[in-house]
Every structure is written in C-alpha cells, then in structure tokens.
Amino acid sequence: MPAKASFTPHLNLPDLLKNLQEALRQFRPLGHLSLTGQQLLFFLALLVCLSPIGSPPLALVLGLLVALVVGNPFPAQSKRFTTRLLQWSVIGLGFGLNAQQALQAGQEGLLFSVASIVGTLLLGGLLGRWLGIDGRISHLIASGTAICGGSAIAAVGPVLRAGEGQMSVALGTVFILNSVALFLFPAVGHALQLSQHQFGLWAAIAIHDTSSVVGAASQYGDEALRIATTVKLARALWIIPVALGTALLFKTPGAKVALPWFILGFVGAMLLNTYVLALQPVAPLVVALAKVGLTLTLFLIGAGLSGTVLRSVGIRPFVQGVLLWAVVSSVSLWAILKMVKL
C-alpha cells in the first residue's frame, strides 16, 4: 500500500513565494515580463476580487492579508489610485439613483447629519482633552468620525498644518474602525431587523468613510445603498464649513479648503439618469462597473493598512476613536429606531 503524502500543518510562506518566483521564471508567456512572488500574490488577490465571488468584505480581507503577510508591493500607486477609484465609483453609483428620491432621503437625513456632526466634534474635543491627546490629532479624529473619514482628515489636515505623523495616526485610527464597520454593521442590522431605510440612514451617519458606507449598505440591499450614498455625500459637503471653522479655531491664516468635486459629479450623474431617458438602458452597466470599482477600492484600502500604519496609531488616539465611534453609533441607532418608521 503506497504511503500517504504528508503535509505540514503550517504554510511556509517564504518557500511558497520562492516557488512561485521560480515557476514564473520558467513560464513566461509574455516574453521578458517578470513579477516577484509578492507582486504575483497581489495580482492573484486582485483577480479574486474581480471574479464572481468578489465582494466588498472579501476584498477588504484579501487586501489586509496581502498587507500584513507579504506587504503591498505597490504602496505609492495604491494610495494614488484609491482616492481616484473611489471618487469615480461614487459618480457611477449616481446613475442608479432618482433625483426626487435622493432629495427626499437627503432632506430626511439633514437633521440627523447636523446633530451628529456638531455633537461628534464637541465630544471628540472633550475626549481628546480627557485622554491628553495632541490637539491636532484629536481634532482630525473627531473630524473624520463626524463627516467622511479619510476624506475629511485629508481636507482638514492642511488647514491645521498637521504633520505627517499626526495625519498617519488619525488616518490609521479611522481606517481600522472602517474595516470593523464593514463587517459589524450589516450583522447588527440583521440582528435588530432594521429596515432598508433605517439601515441606510444609520450606515451614512455612523460609519466613517464613504467606501465602507457604500460597501456595508450594498450588502444590505438596493434601497439601503441608495439612502446611504445620498445621505453620506450630503454629509461630505460639511467638509467645507468644518474646515473653515478649523482655520478660525486653530488660527490658521490663509488656509485653503478643497471642494469635494466628485460630489458634484455624483449629483450630475443622478440628474442625467432621472431626466435623460436615452441614458437609462446603459445606466445599470455603469452602476455595475461602479460597484466593481468600489470592491477594488476596498482591496486597495486593505492593502494600505500595513503593520507600520497599525503601530503608528497608539493607544490613546485609538481609544478616543473607539469611544467616539461607539457613542455616535449607539445614539444614532437609538434615534433612528425611535424616529424613523420601517
């Protein structure tokens, strides 16, 4: 009887990468094109995201695995393409929305948005002082929690004259909590039997970054996605007054505030979808491509969360971020359950 093959219980990753590289050297259908094992695994994970089994949560997990196990071989390119891909994906999602329905959702979410933004900024400042955190880091975390995560931090940071280290701490804190939210929120929504309407509002208010808001809402349903996207992008416009207020609070002369132009593109796509009937046959294709773009965005975000980023956060800023997020999530959920009908 032939002996059974034995397998080691633990994957020897360095040997695996070495074997992949060797196989690639021996098999070159594209001539002299050469990829390292690290790059090959990156592209294999990317292909899984593009396959029929690809989804926003899976893309984020694969990106995290690439970042933490072998490292992102294209850190600069990933960072550059993440923002652009997210913005164009959001614009594409506008072709799946009706202007009248979106206006109604935006009006309904206005009260929740104003209350949560003001309350989050005030509470964030108090928590930062209580924990003894650097004032700029504390304000960046509060701004990211209040409005739209990394986009708000990127807009407010230059106004604060924040250093690279301060920006990294705030962005790392927000991105970690974004990753948790993508998995946690749909599970909580189903457990509490939230309606599509309720979940869309809650996701838009309580999840930091637009990418995770859209990713979580897309898992919950089409109506949740429509409401969450509209309300979240309406909240993103608050970057402008918050950045101007930051300049006054921190006494930053000559501060320049960047307009989130992609929101205008989203509104334009929504108006075209509503009033230009000739575009409606191709609108579903554009929306499908936008969802693929969002999935790839989450993969790149996960691939950017390296061990260095995670270690840079520190305990106290992370505690501030968690406490602030917990309060915003629980209070907004309670208000929605009380005030919003199924």
Automatic annotation (TrEMBL):
It is found in: Cell membrane. The keyword Transmembrane helix applies. It comes from the Bacteria. It is a multi-pass membrane protein. Its main location: membrane. The chain crosses the membrane at residues 40-73, 109-128, 140-160, 166-187, 257-276, 282-305, 317-337. It holds the Pfam family Cons_hypoth698. Keywords: Cell membrane, Membrane, Transmembrane, Transmembrane helix. Belongs to the UPF0324 family. This is Sulfate exporter family transporter. The lineage of its organism: Bacteria, Pseudomonadati, Bacteroidota, Cytophagia, Cytophagales.
